[in-house]
Amino acid sequence: MAKLILIDGSSYLYRAFHALPPLSNARGEPTGALFGVVNMLRATLKAKPEYLAFVSDAPGPTFRDTLYAQYKAHRPPMPDDLRAQVEPMLAIVGALGFPILRVPGVEADDVIGTLAVQAQALGIEVLVSTSDKDMAQLVSPHVTLVNTMSNTMMDRDGVMAKFGVRPEQIVDFLTLTGDTVDNVPGVSKCGPKTAAKWLAEYGTLDGVIANADKVGGKIGECLREALPLLPLSRQLVTIKTDVPLEFGPTDLAQRDPDTAQLRELYARYEFKAALKDLDAAEQATGIVEQPTGEAGAVEPAVLSGPVAVIDAALSAPGDYELVTTLTQFDAWLERLRDAELIAFDTETTSIDAMRADIVGISFAVQAGKACYIPLGHDYPGAPKQLDRHHVLAALKPVFEDPTRPKLGQHAKYDINILSNYGIAVQGLKHDSMLESYVWNATATRHDMDSLAKKYLGYETIKYEQVAGKGAKQISFSQVDLDTACRYAAEDADITLRLHHALWPKLDSVPALRKVYEEIEIPLVPVLAAMEQRGVLIDGDVLRRQSQQLGKRMLELQQQAHAVATHEFNLDSPKQLQTVLFDELGLQAKLKTPTGQPSTNEEALEAIADTHELPRLILDYRSLAKLRSTYTDKLSSIVNPRTGRVHTSYHQGSVATGRVSSSDPNLQNIPVRTEEGRRIRQAFIAPPGWQVLAADYSQIELRIMAHLSGDEGLLRAFHAGGDVHRATAAEVFGVPPEEVTTNQRRAAKAINFGLMYGMSAFGLARQLSVDRGEASDYMGRYFSRYPGVRAFMEATREQAHRNGYVETIFGRRLYLENLTSRNQGLRQGAERAAVNAPMQGSAADIIKRAMIAVAAWLKDRDDAHMLMQVHDELVFEVRADAVDEVRAAVVERMSGAAELAVPLVVDVGVGANWDEAH
DNA sequence: AGCGGAGCCTA
DNA sequence: GTAGGCTCCGCTG
């Protein structure tokens, strides 16, 4: 059964303030009450409730003040030492991921009462965490009070034991006893015992009132005296359970905690146990949450309250309309024409845009107001839907009008879908996935469900909930219309709400806004076009290669079995381990991270001279990899409709700003070995066309020269020629023409290693020299290129100071684990920090180049951009246009950034991708 | 059927 | 030693 924990914030703050000694931190700030509350919150989280909230009083009068001017009139003002702890408390509560609820006009109790009743109706178990006895009136079979500070729980029996009355009698009980602290008038001389006695006798307050005459003695007079005020008192002590709220119990999921901010707050207020918990969690997961706000010095006051308060406009349930009539559709068409920003989403039959059919479209034009237009639900008994052709034809002018701004979540997919129906979407202005990605690429995944949870505290309907999962999953076209509407309209609605939550963040940092507006958003249609175009594959070439590879693999396999004297699965590292190290008794040189003797390439290479089996395995593996991943796979993935391979480019999955490619991954096609390179021969151009490949020469090293400003490195690049040779000449103190092959190899290893944040130890390993020698090389390198060392130091320092490093264009690259107590994790983070500005800037540059080249290609039909492989762009070009395209591509790639060194681009042209290199 | 580990391809 | 994606096995449901 799902559980909801409601925390009575004010009650805890007061109770902790009075119960704990007046602690303070090194700055002299009071921390006692905070400490108590933080411990209570941490204990609460350990219960892992599905839903939770921290409820506190909103500023301003409530309905009780209106009802009775004397209400709480004698309450002393909040002590300064307590007041000072309110803002930090809210900051910590927010950073822990609690939804904070503050509703004006009512007290926290009323919000808690209302949510408790609502949750109960939904079959949710409720725990009310409070130290306020008045709350006992809420207790029921599924509502229990918890007092974390005294570590007690109070259910129905507990209420009876403590008060001597049933929970439903608590209101009457409190009315009779009154409350001197809150200035609620009761019956004087009537304490808990008398109240319980009367209620036991007459059942209810009304019963007591009706029988007021029968009560004798002095106390009877007091009762009769109090009679006129009792109805008012009852109103005052009754906790409301019908407050109109913009959110419900199920909106109250915990958000992702902001560990970085927590660490800072805990450190500031010196909560050592809480800090230790954070460290333990970090060690366990190896993950540290990145701050989502401006990193650097964080003043708790700035980040408190509103950051985590559920914003009614962004978190309320939406109003979704299922559009099945022309009247409805025309009304929405009108809304779209008037909209400042159109949020749209498509529903289809497949996640592969190239094979998907459209099933429906949803729109949102304001938060909470969305529609779903079903177009292709075809289950038995499906209601009649609008004509797809008519709807798309009517929407086409809207989608294709660049002056009507549009918003999507991963809009590239929807653009591809609509393109299948002849609609060329123009005017994509925003994409919530990219907003989140540019804001902080690593704080969260950027799918809508994760974003809604993190930035809105909203739990979306999951696709699995409407369509099932695994083998039983049905197509969206089989989902009933009402369910489909809830799901699909929510997608458009949440996209819009996410935009409202994320855009102000981006807009507040000019460099990030520029990266988003000038790089990521314009890149969307460019990538979409590349995916749709696809690349032509020669299936016959691949099939022939598969056969040849298979034949040679079989031979190797038979030889291996003969050597091992029995059959075994060459693809199984585990079986191989047994054969090599147990049966044949070979000496294992390396271990896997899990402690098993390793059978990876390096380990087999190391024992290849002691037995013939390792070499057979190595040969077999390289062939198996080629066949399973490339020759078999690629020919099977050719789209039958287009005869081409259509990859997907991912704009939101690489921490440094690169794009990645999958289904298939065209960014890891072999190139280093002769056999591998043959696979590239299958990437061809149509008859009369050529493949043109253009790649940046040493782009990351050039960026290092630019960023570091190191004179030696700048000179080397300005001189042109072989930079590794130039480096070797400097490091080894010989003229460039006398540099030996080994010297150049060492220099190249240093150049690359430095960009990966390498240590002398790593270089020694790479070059197979001892550590002293490697460290000697690095010493000489840094003495020749002192600017490089300074740059690396500065980068590490910036990473520690800000939690992120930046690219040339100001993209922020957050680092995880920089403050880890685990040395390995921390050093890993520092290496990543050193590499990130170079890898990230290179990514920015090629993205800018792609946008520029695509703009130039826009109205041409003699060349298409097909692939991006990090520092390389691949095109198909009609033979008569090759020279012109080559010049234009080089010009735009070289001109994609103004660096302190030239950006050199090498171009090759050929009948296939291999020849074009 | 889904998942983690091992291994290996790219820049 | 940076950044990814894909395939296989072998385990768990």
UniProtKB/TrEMBL annotation:
Pfam families: 5_3_exonuc (PF01367), 5_3_exonuc_N (PF02739), DNA_pol_A (PF00476), DNA_pol_A_exo1 (PF01612). GO terms for molecular function: DNA-directed DNA polymerase activity. It catalyses: DNA(n) + a 2'-deoxyribonucleoside 5'-triphosphate = DNA(n+1) + diphosphate. Its EC number is 2.7.7.7. Residues 2-255 form the 5'-3' exonuclease domain. The keyword DNA-binding applies. PROSITE patterns: DNA_POLYMERASE_A. It comes from the Bacteria. Keywords: DNA damage, DNA repair, DNA replication, DNA-binding, DNA-directed DNA polymerase, Exonuclease, Hydrolase, Nuclease, Nucleotidyltransferase, Transferase. The keyword Transmembrane helix does not apply. NCBIfam families: pola, PRK05755.1. This is DNA polymerase I. The gene is polA.
